[in-house]
Automatic annotation (TrEMBL):
Initiates the restart of stalled replication forks, which reloads the replicative helicase on sites other than the origin of replication. Recognizes and binds to abandoned replication forks and remodels them to uncover a helicase loading site. Promotes assembly of the primosome at these replication forks. Its cofactor is Zn(2+). InterPro entries: DEAD/DEAH_box_helicase_dom, Helicase_ATP-bd, P-loop_NTPase, PriA, PriA_3primeBD, PriA_3primeBD_sf, PriA_C, PriA_CRR. Belongs to the helicase family. PriA subfamily. Keywords: ATP-binding, DNA replication, DNA-binding, Helicase, Hydrolase, Isomerase, Metal-binding, Nucleotide-binding, Primosome, Zinc. This is Replication restart protein PriA. Zn(2+) 2 binds at C453, C456, C471, C474. GO terms for cellular component: primosome complex. Binds 2 zinc ions per subunit. GO terms for molecular function: 3'-5' DNA helicase activity; ATP binding; ATP hydrolysis activity; DNA binding; zinc ion binding. It comes from Oceanibacterium hippocampi.
Length: 734
């Protein structure tokens, strides 16, 4: 008989104490009831193997059985896995995220087990190593595996499957055929240990006050959320480093979330200099083996500090004492596919469940975060000036209506003059244009036909360096057609508008002596390439850096004194209500790269609309003015943060099928007080990866439980199998 420490779930349940509900980490799953065999003693959080159809799958004991299926029909749990149970607060996080985002709990649980084999005990894991002759029967997958294993390293079957891109059985087959020997893997490499007792720099008065507040929270070991707002270069990083040191001294673990892990080489160097050892990292570039090692190190507490992308939120920390979300406003924290969640917001939830402080650091808070700080839900620490002698750069607007660039050129005379001065003084400059490739649009000079993606409602972007046209939404790629498909004119296609490749062409022609470099996510592949580029800028091997938004993020270049924003208006086009906020954040961040050390910096914004509130506020060096007017505008329009939004995207291969469901949703829209539905309208990308998309927006008062309303709403609508509904609570674009 089992003794389960469960709460009584209520009188409705007819479950016996001999059954439990088990949550399976599968995309569509909820929890299922299973019998508990007599010889098993199960508690919530225990990891088990349970039968599902003809398979046995891993799952987590979630609670008492629901009692919806009669005991006689239940199948028994197969076994308990000998591993630490899933911690209570992580299980509550899964339920919380699933409930908040209206996702199946199994889909969220899956994010907690990215490398299920990490559950196996580390010592004594079996691996294969090349030993015998090649097998008699050779296949494509087998030869890929043999090629991989030719280096003589030992790997587990699942690592081999992942690295060679083959099924899990191929390695086992090669072992049976005598090509591999089985070996025991040695213990995993230990983690270097960052230490909290190294001295930090002497803090300024403002830093000291902010650090003192955060250290107090860490030492108290209770839930608290703090917005750490400070202009770029104000020394926020040093401030939260003090909080990290305090958490380490208290024997707790720390999670630092960064929006783009690929861009963190400088951050990692600073961390190591401060704490004497590098933190562990969690991001998409890790190999499976590295993931397994880090996952285990987090679970057993050997990893003290982890820097990670948003998925790090679901790791099994053993003693979490602090969460830092750096650049909290960044759109990269919003996941839109699958479980649609904002990692910044879920970090706050995780901190609450773990009863530890969370710090949200930024120079340009999201309006939602600012509203939370103003209402007193979050503490607010503010550092209004740069550290040391560095001053915020001067921002000047260039009115392109008065001083336009020449034909087929993008640099205006005032910006060219500033670049000349800077380069002549031996200083560095940066040109920012948030457009990858050569030109955003390619059209036929004879008939005006535009080259569009066959799968998406988007133009194809010419990437001249690799000689391809690409869709930035679905990855479609093709050559430039010799003939216009519309009017059959020969060689008639013309590039329209600038991307950074084209800008680099103009810059190279104007400044032939300058050493140019381009920085974009497609010209720099992976964290190593980014780190090398950043290092060569630091060594002053580059005079003029031309880049997309990846140059905006976090880098510290002491000799960079001029930033030119080639098209400040770019992000303001289109109807997105967040366009102003996003533009102000992005341009403030790029501008923040200039003049970070002794040499003063300046920023030039090229614009066709200098009187636009965002541009004018940036030009006046007074972003506060923009924030206030934007807050007022949102309040007047009843938009977030003064209301709540839910986006529902209805998509299907057939436009009519998607449209039918979308109209049905509109007809059955919730009538609850304070709720209003807009749409359906074609979604921002009306065609994406071959699927037609419509969007409905539910707007509700802040006191409305939008999850309940939305769940009820969706349950009234029949959705055929070929139509997909995606629910996005708090959509980033609106
Ligand atoms: P932010 O994170 O607000 O952009 P940083 O923490 O990166 O600012 O600080 C900007 C620069 O000032 C960095 O080069 C940093 O090393 C330096 N700095 C900040 N605080 C101090 C300090 N107390 N003593 C010495 N240098 C500091
Ligand atoms: Zn496409």
């Amino acid at each position: 008989m089992v003794e389960l420490p469960f709460d009584n779930p209520g009188t409705r349940s007819t479950a016996s104490r001999d059954s439990v509900s088990v949550l399976l980490p599968l995309p569509l799953a909820g929890a299922y009831d299973y019998l508990v065999p007599d010889d098993l003693d199960l508690a919530p959080g225990d990891i088990v193997m349970a039968p599902l159809g003809k398979r046995e799958v891993m799952g987590v004991v979630w609670g008492p059985a629901s009692g919806e299926v009669a005991s006689a029909k239940l199948r028994p749990v197969a076994a308990r896995i000998d591993s630490a149970p899933m911690r209570d607060e992580l299980r509550r996080l899964v339920d919380w995220v699933a409930g908040y985002t209206l996702s199946p709990p199994g889909a969220v649980l899956r994010m907690c087990f990215p490398v299920p084999e990490a559950l196996e005990p580390a010592a004594g894991r079996k691996a294969y190593r090349l030993a015998g002759p090649p097998p008699e029967r050779m296949t494509g997958p087998r030869s890929r595996v043999l090629e991989l294993m030719a280096d003589g390293l030992a790997r587990t079957a699942s690592e081999i499957a992942e690295l060679a891109g083959v099924g899990a059985g191929v390695a086992n087959g090669l072992a049976s055929a005598g090509s591999f020997e089985t070996v025991q893997l040695a213990a995993e490499a230990p983690f270097a240990e960052p230490r909290g007792d190294h001295p930090g720099p002497t803090l300024s008065e403002a830093q000291d006050a902010a650090a003192g507040a955060l250290v107090g929270q860490v030492e108290a070991g209770r839930f608290a959320v703090t917005l750490l707002e400070g202009v770029t270069g104000s020394g926020k990083t040093e401030v939260y480093f003090e909080a990290i040191a305090a958490a380490l001294e208290a024997g707790r673990q720390v999670l630092v979330m960064l929006p783009e892990i690929a861009l963190t080489a400088q951050w990692l160097d600073r961390f190591e200099a401060r704490f004497g050892a590098a933190p562990a990292a969690w991001h998409s570039e890790l190999t499976r083996g590295e993931r397994r090692r880090v996952w285990r190190g987090i679970a057993d507490g050997r990893v003290r500090v982890l820097v990670g992308a948003r998925s790090a939120l679901f790791l099994p920390f053993r003693a979490l004492g602090l969460i830092v979300v750096d650049e909290e406003h960044d759109a990269a924290y919003k996941q839109e596919d699958g479980v649609a969640y904002n990692a910044r917001d879920m970090a706050v939830v995780r901190a609450r469940l773990n009863d530890c402080p969370a710090v949200l650091a930024t120079a340009t808070p999201a309006l939602e975060t600012l509203a939370n700080a103003r209402s007193g839900r979050y503490c607010h620490l503010h550092m209004p000036s740069r550290h040391g002698v560095a001053e915020l750069p001067d921002v000047a607007l260039v009115d392109l209506r008065k001083t336009p660039p020449g034909r087929q050129e993008w640099l205006s005379p005032p910006l060219v003059a500033a670049l000349e001065e800077t380069l002549a003084a031996g200083e560095q400059a940066m040109l920012f244009l948030n457009r990858r490739g050569y030109a955003p649009l390619t059209l036929c000079g004879a008939c005006g036909h535009r080259l569009e993606c066959p799968n998406c409602s988007a133009w194809l972007v010419e990437h001249r360096l690799i000689g391809r046209l690409q869709c930035h939404h679905c990855g479609f790629s093709g050559g430039l057609p010799k003939q216009c498909p519309e009017c059959e004119a020969d060689e008639s296609f013309k590039a329209c508008g600038p991307g950074i490749e084209r800008l680099a062409e103009e810059a190279a022609a104007r400044f032939p002596e300058a050493r140019l470099a381009m920085m974009a996510s497609d010209t720099l592949r992976g964290p190593k390439a980014v780190a090398e580029m950043v290092a060569s800028v630091e060594r002053r091997e580059i005079d003029l850096l031309i880049g997309t938004q990846i140059v905006a993020k976090g880098h510290h270049f002491p000799y960079l004194t001029l930033v030119g924003v080639v098209d400040a208006d770019l992000g303001l086009k289109g109807g997105d209500l967040r366009a102003g906020e996003r533009t102000y954040q992005l341009i403030s961040q790029v501008a923040g790269r200039a003049g970070r050390a002794e040499r003063p910096g300046r920023v030039i914004l090229q614009t066709w609309m200098p009187e636009h509130p965002v541009i004018a506020a940036l030009g006046a060096g007074d972003p506060g003015r923009f924030i206030e007017s934007e807050m007022e505008g949102r309040q007047a329009a009843g938009m977030p943060p003064f209301s709540r939004l839910v986006a529902i995207i209805v998509s299907a291969g057939e436009g009519a099928a998607a449209g039918g469901v979308a109209r049905d949703l509109a007809r059955k829209a919730p009538r609850e007080a304070g709720c209003q539905v807009f749409g359906p309208a074609p979604a921002p990308l009306a065609l994406l990866r071959g699927r037609h998309r419509f969007r409905l927006l539910l707007r509700a008062g802040r006191d409305v439980n939008v999850q309940t309303v939305t769940r009820r709403w969706l349950s009234r609508v029949q959705v055929p199998a070929n139509v997909r509904l995606q629910v996005d609570i708090d959509p980033y674009s609106f």
